[in-house]
Amino acid sequence: MATQQFESFSLGNGLRVIVQPMSAVQSAALTLMLPGGSIYDIPGKFGTGAILAEMIPRGAGQFSARELSSAMDNLGLQRGVSGGVGYITVSAATTADRLMDAIPLIATMVLQPHLAEDQFEPAQELVLQGLHALEDEPKQRLGHYLRACSYAAPWSNPAEGILADVESIQLADVVNHHKSLILPNETVLGIAGNVDVPAVKEALTAALGDWQAGDLPALVTGGTDASPKHVEHDSTQTHIGVAWETVPYRHERYFEAWATVSLLSGGMSSRLFTEVREKRGLCYEISASINTQRDQARVFAYAGTTNERAQETLDVMVAEIRRVHEGITTDELDRCKARAKSTLIMQQESTMSRSSSLARDTLHLGRVMPMEELRSKIDALTVDQVRDFALEFASEKMALVTIGPQQLDPSCINSVSVAS
Amino acid sequence: MQFYEHTLDNGLKIVVELNSSVYSVAAGFFVRTGSRDETPEVSGVSHFLEHMAFKGNDKYSADDVNRIFDEIGANYNASTGEEVTMYYASVLPEYLDKTLELLTVLMQPSLAQEDFDMEKNVILEEIGMYDDQPAFTTYDNLMATHFANHPLGKSVLGTRESITALTSEQMRAYHADRYKAGNITLAVTGNTDFDTLIKLIEKHCSSIPAGTCDRDLPDVFATEKTEMITRESSVQQHVMQMGQAPKGKDSLRFAAELLGIVVGDDSGSRLFWDVVDPGHADSAELSYNEYDGAGTWMTYLSCAPEDVAANIARMKTVFEEVNKNGITAEELEQAKNKVASRIVLRGERPMGRLSSLGSNWVYRKEYCSVADDLKTVRAVSLQDIDALLKQFPMRLITTVGVGPLQELSLN
Q1: What is the pTM of this model?
Q2: CB-hemisphere CA count at 13 Å for B407?
Q3: Are A338 and B345 inside 8 Å of each other by CB?
Q4: What ipTM describes this predicted complex?
Q5: Which CATH number belongs to the domain containing residue A391 in this structure?
Q6: In chain A, which among 205-264 make CB contacts under 8 A with chain B?
Q7: CB half-sphere exposure, A335, CA atoms < 13 A
Q8: Is there a domain that residue A137 lies in?
Q9: CA-based radius of gyration for chain B
């Protein structure tokens, strides 16, 4: 297998760039992660970052919204701007020969958005529509509540905003959000594809070199919503979400955390799928995954099931989570490792997935973890390590959110003493 | 890229596209069967059977199938539609032997009663899950209404009633009829070599029973009808509309795909600028869908109930303007650029190529490389668009709504 090569450099204003040249592909992709996610939304103005993300493509520099869209379409640029919890992420991909032309357009869009009066109302309206649509999608709503019940503010701030706040946000709030947060020294840019590094560097310097550095405002911290929480909803299924604390990606024991969750929910031979779905036929969808911020992380587990079987589903699901340290075999752990390694290798075939990994690694670790290092960390994991981690980080009280016609008995989420 | 085709003695068709510059290899069985091939008594059996395939046979139990796929780090799954049931896995090349063996097990499951009874619960849960997704409910009812009295109107999932009543004997009979080698195509893409591959395929897949089966391809007499499914507790209204478009074998399908992007792509299209960008709706899209012997224009609108009538009128204005005056050269060029970069990006991964390779063979017995696809897209002219609009104007005759509204006037 070809070894990976990366080139990292910073522009004078502190913007960190990581490029991975991939000669076997025809495409190139970039991921730009800008501070400005909902963690910076001020209480009472939740949704400011979401409106900004909606307004960024609506005209910039010398381009009207239509001209900007047209210019990007002419380059075949597949792109998206999404407002998340920590960051506003701009992703874009096209054939490699066109990336150089796309860079100045993307830079103009990010640095000089018009944020004009006539575009504000439609953008605000679309964020509101998105929130209304969420009301009809119990599974999506569940994620929103589970986050609020397991993270403290500002990490629990909803990326999509909240209805009451969005209506009261003013254009000035959005302009201020852009001005105070979109700073090069807190931004990372990952580029992967069939590109020439010196040419990329030159294009980036010309397009982004004048961007002014600054200091981010302090985060407004707060509490966590009460759990267990039940939201009554006239749905066919009861949607169940369980969350507990684990270690973030940058933590030295992250791979033990990953393996613990992988035993539960990595592949169709994993424990939750086998015990809840295959053996008992309780649900169609069941999953668990790690949600990692830079300094903290949670495991989010989900199951959707018809109401009469919801209590049993919750009880079996939580029991499996509680006993994850029991009876781990080498074969079971090897399966998790095999899946992870093959995913890692196949990721090398996609410029979009590589560019986002480059950006994410840099934000979380301050560097890109080469594939060989990742492989050896995964290979080195032992059953004892994973068992010890599962015991040490077993949650005393998990967060529980349910959405559906009836409330469930939540007693299973409180810890019983864990025997080692 | 190198293309090969081959047919085994039992009639199994094999299409292969090799690419030595990628790391993985993907393989998939495309069974030409789906909800359109079901009788009303067994509605939902194709999809239920797809689940049962993973329950294994005498040699490999359900646990074995899942465990071994995970052991080799496979990215694997299956899907069922109106016309094709697909089983696929992508793996590193050294695991191709095991992968083909397991995929072949999926083609010949035991269909044991105990597994059938347990999996029935999972299917009923899946029906419940989609019930909570209003866009899906809208689509399912739109197909049933537009294709009333046509095989394409049959639901992929079936209903609670049809699934509850289904027996394992009925499923076995359906399986014996549809899963014959002559009705199956095996597509393989990615990094391997043909000689090794063909030996593995002969070793594993020769056990699939020979035989062929038919499919009815009746003409479509689409229903001009509006149906509203009222859900008082919903907040948003979902509306989908459907009209006739080129069939899956019609050469106008490329023009239709491009026109769909000009008019109804999720960004930068006419619907986007007239309906979504001003904030009137959170989605307003149009797409072209091709089927065996049929084709559709399909729209999707999601907005506040009180804005539906105005938005439907805005959309109608867009369609009428395009039907009358066509599109501009610049719009066509932009759509080509969008499609071209999608083809290139998707084509870089074996999993991305698999569906295109398999579907082209199942539907048209033709092979199109990425370069062929790009050339075809580039060749579409404004004259082609005009010819398309003349034959298949965007006239959306079937409408289905799900949400608070009880009625909808389209005039």
Answers
A1: 0.94
A2: 2
A3: no
A4: 0.92
A5: 3.30.830.10
A6: 233-237, 239
A7: 26
A8: yes
A9: 22
